[in-house]
Design goal:
By secondary structure, this protein is an alpha/beta fold. The chain has 2 domains: 9-240, Phosphoenolpyruvate-binding domains (TIM Barrel); 245-282, no CATH class. The chain has helices spanning 9-17, 30-38, 50-53, 65-78, 97-111, 125-133, 149-152, 162-178, 190-199, 221-224, 242-258, 273-282; strands at residues 22-26, 43-46, 83-87, 115-119, 138-143, 182-186, 204-208, 216-219. It has an 8-stranded parallel beta barrel, surrounded by 6 helices. Helix 2 (30-38) packs across helix 4 (65-78) and helix 5 crosses helix 6. It starts with 8 loop residues before the first helix and ends with a helix. The mean pLDDT is 97. Bound molecules: 3-methyl-2-oxobutanoic acid (KIV). 3-methyl-2-oxobutanoic acid (KIV) binds next to strand 6.
């Protein structure tokens, strides 16, 4: 087990003050959480991307609170000391401030999360305020927001024109003023991310495919290790091809069982001759 100290909000703000980038990854299951804890990853996001990476949907929209709670609980068991963020799924905060507070509270009470994340800018600022006023740390998510991918016209860079970039700057300020302690910028141009980071007063800016000048980086775990078969986005760096390693292992298993070279004596258990003889007599 990892013996590192629990990562808490002041730990994250101290990293920002010291100019040390914050590490953040998605995670959805116990064994991966265990590895991320051992690697000392600061923050873990139980993202609703699990709808695609774990459940095989084409989008994040079908994901429910029940899905999220089950996965977040498993991640917390594997990573007791990471700063754990629960991602609010589609339509669990959009309908009203009250719905948002109630579902954010489930992440805290049922999963041991340290914070929640939700998508949207000015229009969602009152949800952020309500959640923060209820004592729950909240993170905003701007730029490419997958729950609105249809309205955004697909998975593409956001804020490339001056007018759209200005809207993202205004959204970021609205979220910060509503009390968000952090904002994730997904797929916005690097200079826009830098500008928002420089203007943030008491808010941690995190980048996903938005360049190096934020206070930290987020990546989708499955993209990092070749574990999502449908595509690997440009912004993701592949740090190791676990998908290939696993596939080769599976093929070898199938071949060894077929050729009767697996199992070998070290893979099974025997019983004493006298016990076996007694068994035969009992039959
Ligand atoms: O669900 C998720 O993993 C996310 C990332 C795309 C940021 O929200």
């Amino acid at each position: 087990m990892s013996d590192r100290k629990k990562v808490i909000l002041p730990t994250l703000f101290k990293k920002v003050a010291d100019g040390q980038p914050i590490t953040w990854l998605t995670c959805y299951d116990y064994p991966t959480a265990y590895l991320q804890e051992q690697a000392g990853i600061d923050m873990i996001l139980v993202g609703d991307s699990l709808g695609m990476t774990m459940l095989g949907y084409d989008s994040t929209l079908p994901v429910t609170m029940e899905d999220m709670v089950r996965h977040a609980q498993a991640v917390r068991r594997g990573a007791p000391n990471a700063f754990l963020v629960g991602d609010m799924p589609y339509m669990t905060y959009q309908p009203s401030v009250e719905t948002a507070i109630r579902n954010a509270g489930r992440f805290m009470a049922e999963c041991g999360c340290d914070a929640i994340k939700l998508e949207g800018g000015v229009a969602m600022a009152d949800r952020i305020k309500g959640i923060v006023d209820a004592g729950i740390p909240a993170i905003g998510h701007l730029g490419l927001t997958p729950q609105s991918v249809s309205a955004l016209g697909g998975f593409r860079v956001q804020g490339k024109s001056a007018a759209l970039a200005k809207k993202i700057v205004d959204d970021a300020k609205a979220l910060e003023n509503a009390g968000a302690f952090a904002i994730l910028l997904e797929l916005v141009p690097d200079r826009l991310c830098k500008l928002i980071t420089e203007r943030a007063e008491n808010c941690i800016i995190m980048s996903l495919g938005s360049g190096p000048d934020a206070h930290g980086q987020l990546l989708i775990y499955h993209d990092m290790f070749g574990l999502y078969p449908k595509f690997t986005p440009k912004m993701a760096k592949v740090f190791g091809n676990a998908g290939e390693v696993i596939l080769n292992g599976l093929k070898q298993y199938a071949s060894e069982v077929t050729s009767k070279t697996f199992p070998q004596p070290e893979n099974w258990f025997g019983m004493k001759d006298e016990e076996f003889d007694d068994l035969l007599k009992l039959l």
